[in-house]
Design a protein that fits this description.
Elements (H helix, E strand, L loop, with lengths): L14 H21 L6 H15 L3 E10 L21 E11 L2 E11 L3 H24 L3 H15 L2 E2 L6 E2 L25 E8 L6 E7 L15
Helix pairs in contact: 1-2, 3-4
Length: 232
């Protein structure tokens, strides 16, 4: 099958550096998580995150850092948060990072809870599980980007959650991947190439004002990142 121009990369693209950028992005995300405390606002959390980036040697951010708290976790990337929301004693939040290391992009996101928030924690666990199911369907069945999101919607409903179809996944690569105009993963009609696309999963409770988000690189081998053993 001929290469799709939407999956093009630059001359200095290196799959190993892509994986390294991914690993370093996850490490930065975990450090931000460890500093999240009840009472913090989203704006304060983003200032804190910038300090973490400095500690981790981030070259630059390629998309604005997104930290959503409480009811704001149901909002998509393009929707504005309620700025008055602060992290409660028993609450949930998600972190979405787009970082550059060695001129390669990392893009990772995960949802966590503080205190005793069993429903929010269940939602976070479900988002990770749904990501794993959809990624495995890509590995085993070679589904197109469009088919992956159709499958995700079906599985989310079966699990008792609502998939936010406005969160559609996207290209990633050597910085800046945007020169290749890959478009959303949900609109990609072919099997996405290994190590070129971010699968984004955002779900919400069907009636309550909270949701969860998880994203990572689609790779030919399971990622082995903290969500496999860390339900918090």
């Amino acid at each position: 099958m001929a290469a799709d121009p939407r999956e093009a990369v630059g001359r200095k693209f290196d799959p190993a550096l892509m994986q390294r950028a991914r690993e370093r992005s996850w490490a930065a995300l975990q450090d931000i998580r460890e500093r999240m405390q009840p009472g913090i606002s989203e704006d304060e959390a983003k200032v804190m995150a910038a300090d973490v980036f400095s500690d981790h040697g981030v070259e630059r951010v390629w998309h604005p850092t997104l930290i959503r708290i409480g009811a704001n976790t149901t909002k998509t990337w393009r929707q504005r948060s309620d700025p008055t929301v602060r992290l409660g004693e028993h609450d949930g939040y998600f972190i979405d990072l787009g970082l550059v290391f060695d001129r390669h992009e990392g893009d990772v996101g995960d949802t966590f809870t503080v205190g005793d928030a069993p429903q929010q924690q269940a939602c976070a666990v479900a988002a990770r599980a749904l990501f794993d199911e959809v990624a495995e369907a890509w590995r085993q069945q070679g589904l197109s980007g469009a088919a992956l999101y159709a499958y995700a919607g079906e599985r989310a409903a079966a699990m008792g959650w609502r998939l936010n179809h406005a969160t559609k996944g996207h290209r990633i690569g050597d910085y800046p991947h945007a020169v290749h105009k890959g478009g959303p993963l949900e609109a990609f009609g072919r099997r996405p190439a290994d190590g070129r696309w971010i699968l984004e999963i955002q779900i919400a409770h069907p009636t309550e004002p909270f949701g969860a988000f998880y994203e990572d690189l689609l790779t030919g081998t399971p990622p082995g990142v903290p969500h496999a053993t860390d339900p918090g």
